[in-house]
Amino acid sequence: MKLQRNGRTKALAIGALAVVSSLTLAACGSDNNSSSNSSSSPAAAGSSAASASSIACNGATGQLLAAGSTAQQNAMTQWVKDFQAACSGVTINYQGTGSGAGITSFQTGKVAFAGSDAAMKAADVAKTQGTACQNGGKGINIPMIGGPIAIGYNLPGVTNLVLDAKTLAQIFTGKITKWDDPAIKALNSSANLPSLPIQTFHRSDGSGTTANFTAYLAAAAPADYTFAPNKLWQAKGGQAAAGSAGLAAQVKQVQGSISYFELSYATQQSISTVQVNTGASAPVAVSTAAASKAVGDAKVVGTAPDLALDLKAAYTTKTDGAYPIVLVTYEIACDKGNAASTLPTLKSFLTYISSTAGQNSVSSLGYFPLPAALQTQVQQTISSLS
Amino acid sequence: METPRETSAPPSDREPHKTPNLAGSSPRRGRSSLADSSGTGRRGDAIFKFASSGSGILLLVIMAAIAAFLTVRAISAISADHGNFLTTSDWQTQADPITFGIAAIATGTIVSAVVAMVIAVPVALGIALFISHYAPRRIAQALGYVVDLLAAVPSIVFGLWGALFLVPHMLGVNAWLNQYFGWTYVFHQNEPGTQPRSLFTVGVVLAIMILPIITAVSREIFLQVPRAHEEAALALGATRWEMIRTAVIPFGRSGIISASMLGLGRALGETMAVATVLSPSYVINLHILDPAGSTIAQTIASQFGESQGTGRDALIAAGLVLFVITLVVNGGARMIIARRKEYSGADA
């Protein structure tokens, strides 16, 4: 019977309590690690072959702050590294905070440009006037780099799965629930499809990837996907995970699963990807080249100098070898009235990343260059920034 | 968190009378406390009073500022809401029309916290009693240290552990619960065999996270039970369990409630671990084994990056709701403590 307790034990215990509570407080403080960063794909060493000669510094100096889309963060990391190596005295800091947070930062003048997975809405453009952009200028959308969205699945024994927009829409809205559904069998006559339930996974966080994937479904299968394109997943049912990395991990883990994420996640974790039957002569497998081909069909709908794209033509392409599920990310800057102190650096940096050398330097990271005609327009727009 | 203050204050008969001198005496300065008790003592008193009341006022000001900020932003979001803020389950802040409500996320927050409490409180009390009354001293110290160490693990680590290790291992537990307790509705699974990234698994992870807080505070309370009470119980022929039941637990009851409320506060507000483990969806789902439901903190964390304008304000409105839930829970706990105090024997 240990009834005797001395003061020392008590003091120790009180000390321990103090330690516990302070540690607990510290733990509380660290809770806010935003999950938005998790969609930046595992850092891959890109080709650093961009020759310094292709970078014209043109008076670039000092610090350039930028924020926004995580989908282009890997490309940005590579571009910033190459640019800083070529132009001494320049620091470019791109924070992958998410497109929405990036646009908000841009509107309040905290960053010189923002990265976004979607063109700004009119209401957002209005908020850039007189705040971020002086002299009557306004924020404009400059398409910069594209990436294919892969549909990854986990179905033992089934390779080369072919789906079309209609079946994809029915799978992701819960109308098709088994892998041996007649609609899937019709597209895969030779495959031995198991009678497994389909487990769909979508993003739990707001995401440009979701916005582009749902835009594809809405454009290519309007009868079966009746929701408007949205950063937040709209359809009912299915399961969710945070970030593209989270989705890829689930697909890797769960038999019978299907989800969507940037191509780099599928290649790095060797996840099987769906070939899309677009109505072209043969189903199209996902690749940067095939996606680039589809974006060639896209049209500029912004009024100059704004270069917002309408990807509907890309989503519904029937061109042979064109992969329709694509994402094009934009840089957002002012057409007029950019901050004078950062303008030379801004123009010089954007000129480099939109140049052929800059565009090709990130192709090994799962991005594809803009089609040549669009690239010319982008370069003209950038040179006219003031 | 102010809850432990009134409960952990030891009964006065065991406390040496040193508190009244604390403010004035300053032996660290190398002077005798007797000599300057009339001079610097008064000034020290004033300084200490100013500093401590200043800290108290500062806390109130900060709380008021947070509440004001949340309210202002929340009002603009709620006025733009096309759904009913209290009864809508959906959270569509990017859609047109904007429709969102806290029905699902508030329910999920409370459900996951309740699951965590149901698991953590009994276990924590067991650990605390073992450390204070059963374990040999050396083991008690080591165990106390290990439990305290749990509190130092960052929540994202709990989240990763939950998502990568616990989730696959919960499959069997879920199947068993569904098979034998499916009739309770709560443990019914709509789709058996899905990944258990559910509110139940979240509750288990949260339980482990709040365990050290509840254990540490309850242990302190149990160690402060007057020895006279314990000896009296034993002298009357009580076994050790009867002694704990009649002397230790009644004395510590209000402290146990305080400890639980500290844990509950943490469980309600946990963000990263929930966001990593849960497969969220904006429906009210009381089948806690199904991968559905979501919590307020997790919703804010996962949507903040891609939200702008009203969408962001809507998340702040959700934050206000969490703030209010926490206030109500703490207020309720204080009421319970105040009512129980007279029966607890703490003043005996």
From TrEMBL, chain A:
GO terms for biological process: phosphate ion transmembrane transport. It holds the Pfam family PBP_like_2. One of its GO terms (cellular component) is ATP-binding cassette (ABC) transporter complex. The keyword Ribonucleoprotein does not apply. Belongs to the PstS family. NCBIfam families: 3a0107s03 (TIGR00975). This is Phosphate-binding protein. It comes from Streptacidiphilus jiangxiensis. The lineage of its organism: Bacteria, Bacillati, Actinomycetota, Actinomycetes, Kitasatosporales.
From TrEMBL, chain B:
It is a multi-pass membrane protein. This is Phosphate transport system permease protein. The chain crosses the membrane at residues 57-78, 98-131, 143-164, 199-217, 314-333. PANTHER family: PHOSPHATE TRANSPORT SYSTEM PERMEASE PROTEIN PST, PHOSPHATE TRANSPORT SYSTEM PERMEASE PROTEIN PSTC. It comes from Streptacidiphilus jiangxiensis. Residues 1-41 are annotated as: Disordered. Belongs to the binding-protein-dependent transport system permease family. CysTW subfamily. Pfam families: BPD_transp_1. Part of the binding-protein-dependent transport system for phosphate; probably responsible for the translocation of the substrate across the membrane.
